[in-house]
Amino acid sequence: MTLDAEFPELRGVVAAFSDRGTVVPGDRRPIWRLALVALVLFVSSRGAKSSIWRLHILDWAARTAAGRDELLAYTQGRLASPYLGVRYDPALQRIIVLGDAEGVLSVSGRTVSLTERGKRFATALLDEPTVLAEETAFLQKLGKAFLERSAEDVASGRART
Are strands 105-108 and 49-51 parallel, antiparallel or unpaired? Predict the structure, then answer.
């Protein structure tokens, strides 16, 4: 059976398609994610460097109000359990590779750090009060309180000591 036989009413109809693009949420856009990683390293990391796992946790937390609240509660001692709803996001690995290629990040083993270019990028982001405003406020409130040891505790499920 042919399409003409099955749908005779469509014989001679011309279909036209227009590419209207796809709406991509901000947190899925590479430059948004790279900006967030730069801010995490600049604002909430000692020496502007972090382990990749710690970046995953902070990236997860910064992206939603619930994640921000949960991580702040944990670091402030209001939540004793290290079982946070952290989700590993493979896209973050690609952002780290992109940041390294762009000269914003430097990767050494399992440690990611900001380059001088990355520090200038983060400073420029902080100079724009409307850019990543909620995420920046969270990172400033968090400060450097979420240590590598804290990230290891969350990753392993160990309770605070």
Answer: unpaired
Backbone conformation region of residue 77, classed left if phi is above 0, alpha if psi is from -120 to 50, else beta: left
In sequence order, the 6+-apart residues with CB closer than 8 A to the CB of 119 are 42, 48
Domain count, the chain: 1
Find the distance separating the first CA and the last CA of the chain, reported in whole Å.
72
Q: Is residue 17 in some structural domain? A: no
Looking at residue 158, the DSSP 8-state letter turns out to be: P
Strand residues in 32-76 grouped as ranges (E): 49-51
The predicted-structure confidence for 92-132, as pLDDT tens digits, reads as follows: 999 999 999 999 999 999 999 999 999 999 999 999 989 99
Q: Are 50 and 112 in contact (CB under 8 A)?
A: yes
114 pairs with which residues across the strands? 105
**Domain range spanning residue 95?**
27-156
Indicate whether 19 belongs to any domain: no
Q: Is residue 128 part of a domain?
A: yes
pLDDT value of position 137: 95
Q: How confident is the model at residue 17 (pLDDT cuts 50, 70, 90)?
A: low
Q: Which SS3 state, helix, strand or coil, does residue 11 take?
A: coil
More confident residue, 113 or 30: 113
